[in-house]
């Protein structure tokens, strides 16, 4: 709160910074539409999915700068397109992972099951593209493309008129307050680091790390290269937790896939004997992903221990001139 009781996060200097940060993230999202529609390079979809997450994080941080109804419309559209992109991206990642494993498998008895899984993933990705195209059509006709850029330009003009110039010190103070909250949201998961069985909390921890990283990236222009090391550390943490989560998804999904293929074989052939040739490959994958998870969790534990020694993540705030939570 400001001295007169107002909301500091709606102050002109802060909202001027917000207008520029959000404009950058809005166009990072919209500029990927042609490549995602063409669907020749999966990295276009990956970039657009990440852009949608960065956009939503920024919109949350700068909510005080916008009317509530506009905010709801923009957030709803971003969430909807992000969900559709997420499903397609997950299918891309899964297919790439299985294809990489298949290319290294020499044992003939394992290949049919892995190849069948890759086929089903490719079929699912093709089906999802229709939903992606529909989401892109809504996005091009919706408020994020047709209302938000003009709203951001209008906000920038109003804020420039309301303050003589950017108050970098004020924005830094507010940014540190937001980063302090994000650090606390990550540190609260400290007890999870020694518990590999706490699947949902590990996934929530990854989300907290991602939000801290995205928030730090938004305010990076205020500190420059001072933030680089911490951004890299957060990216490493996010990747480790992401690989653990991917293994957890496989652990839950592969038994369902096996059962579905067994039923499919029984319906088509009148018996499930043909299914037997698929089973060794899928069981091999189950063991492979269990092995990977064990290794990645060990890596994560060592990384987290090193990262939290001393002041831990609060070093980030101290380096930027703030105080820990």
Report on this model:
With 325 residues, the chain is mainly alpha-helical. The chain has two domains: 1-166, CHAD domain (Alpha solenoid); 167-325. Helix content is 78%, strand content 0%. The longest helix has 42 residues, at 228-269. The radius of gyration is 23 Å and the shape is flat. The two termini are 18 Å apart. Mean pLDDT is 89; it is low at 1-6.
Strand content: under 5%
What shape does the CA trace take?
A: flat
Pattern of helices and strands: HHHHHHHHHHHHH
Unreliable spans are: 1-6
Total strands: 0
What is the rounded Rg?
23 Å
* Largest sheet, strands/sense/barrel: none
Q: CATH H level of the largest domain: which superfamily?
A: CHAD domain
What is the CATH architecture annotation of the largest domain? Alpha solenoid
User: By helix and strand content, what is the structural category?
Assistant: mainly alpha
The first-to-last residue Cα distance is 18 Å
In brief, what are we looking at here?
It is built from 13 helices and no strands. With 325 residues, it is mostly helical.
Features:
flat, 2 domains, 13 helices, CHAD domain, disordered N terminus, 325 residues, mainly alpha
Mind sketching the topology for me?
Layout: H1 12-30, H2 33-38, H3 42-61, H4 68-104, H5 111-141, H6 143-146, H7 148-162, H8 168-187, H9 199-218, H10 220-223, H11 228-269, H12 279-307, H13 314-319
Helix pairs in contact: 1-3, 1-7, 3-4, 3-9, 4-5, 5-12, 8-9, 9-11, 11-12
């Amino acid at each position: 709160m400001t001295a007169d009781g107002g909301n500091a996060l709606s102050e002109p200097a802060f909202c001027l910074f917000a207008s520029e940060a959000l404009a950058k993230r809005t166009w990072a999202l919209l500029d990927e539409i042609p490549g995602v529609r063409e669907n020749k390079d999966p990295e276009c979809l990956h970039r657009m999915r990440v852009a949608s997450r960065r956009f939503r994080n920024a919109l949350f941080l700068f909510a005080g700068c916008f009317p509530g109804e506009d905010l709801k419309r923009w957030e709803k559209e971003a969430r909807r397109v992000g969900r559709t992109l997420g499903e397609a991206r997950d299918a891309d990642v899964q297919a790439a992972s299985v294809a990489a494993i298949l290319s290294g498998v020499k044992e003939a008895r394992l290949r049919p099951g892995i190849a069948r899984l890759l086929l089903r993933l490719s079929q699912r990705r093709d089906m999802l593209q229709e939903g992606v195209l529909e989401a892109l059509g809504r996005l091009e006709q919706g408020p994020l493309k047709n209302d938000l850029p003009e709203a951001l330009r209008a906000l920038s003009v109003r804020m420039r008129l309301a303050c003589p110039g950017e108050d970098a010190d004020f924005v830094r103070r507010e940014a540190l307050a937001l980063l302090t909250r994000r650090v606390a949201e990550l540190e609260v998961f400290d007890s999870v680091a020694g518990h590999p069985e706490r699947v949902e909390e590990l996934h929530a921890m990854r989300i907290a790390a991602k939000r801290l990283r995205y928030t730090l990236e938004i305010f990076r222009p205020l500190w420059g290269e001072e933030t680089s090391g911490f951004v890299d550390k957060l990216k490493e943490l996010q990747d480790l937790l992401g690989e653990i989560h991917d293994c957890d998804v496989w652990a839950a999904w592969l038994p369902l896939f096996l059962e579905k293929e067994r039923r499919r074989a029984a319906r088509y052939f009148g018996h499930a004997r043909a299914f037997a040739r698929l089973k060794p490959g899928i069981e091999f994958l189950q063991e492979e992903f269990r092995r990977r998870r064990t290794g990645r969790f060990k890596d994560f534990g060592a990384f987290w221990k090193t990262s939290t020694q001393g002041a831990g993540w609060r070093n980030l705030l101290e380096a930027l001139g703030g105080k820990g939570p």
